[in-house]
Amino acid sequence: MTTNKNYPKSFSHIGLTVPNIKEAVKFYSEVMGWYIIMEPSEVKKEKETAIGQMCIDVFGNDWTSFEIAHLATSDGIGIELFSFPNGIKEAPEFNPFNTGLFHFCIQDPNIEELIDKILSYGGKQRMPIRAYYPNDKPFKMCYVEDPFGIVFEIYTHSYELTYSSGAYSK
């Protein structure tokens, strides 16, 4: 008899491609408060190191170098920032209906203050702040963009708290 030993996997990190690595590190460390784990550095295409070979495996052969930086959230989730010298420097058209990564979400109980800070750094607010349970609970959310056009969401409370009450039940 086989026992199913499935268990929930933890989230390690997300990789974001940005047009300017230094501006992105500044935004995410100053606005989000994320810890800088590794300052921006250059990775060159070469086969002599494990990192070089790994990048060739991932990116193929059509590159020569790129910049990378690593940040971390308060709960240890990694934010891996990439900046390539070639490629389109604008965010792709926002289209949540197509298959692919739609957004990521961060949590901050002071959603209004965080949105103001995002705006002051050149980001955008994509919608009004909305409440999941307007008359019962203080759970709020809002979609925003960083200054580079990357869309993300803000929750005031944890994912479990927000959905455990059945946000869509009424």
Structural class: alpha+beta
Total domains: 2
What distance separates the N and C termini? 43 Å
The percentage helix is: 10-25%
Please state the overall shape, judged from the principal axes of the Cα atoms. globular
Mean pLDDT figure: 92
GO molecular function, one term: metal ion binding
Organism: Algibacter luteus
Protein name: Lactoylglutathione lyase family protein
Keywords: Lyase, Metal-binding
Q: Would you write up a description of this structure?
A:
The protein is an alpha+beta fold and 170 residues long. It has 2 domains: 11-88, Roll (2,3-Dihydroxybiphenyl 1,2-Dioxygenase, domain 1); 91-169, 2,3-Dihydroxybiphenyl 1,2-Dioxygenase, domain 1 (Roll), CATH 3.10.180. 21% of the residues lie in helices and 28% in strands. The chain has 4 helices and 9 strands; from the N terminus they run E-H-E-H-E-E-E-H-E-E-E-E-H. The chain has helices spanning 21-30, 50-59, 111-120, 159-164; strands at residues 13-17, 35-44, 65-72, 78-83, 104-107, 124-125, 130-131, 140-145, 151-155.
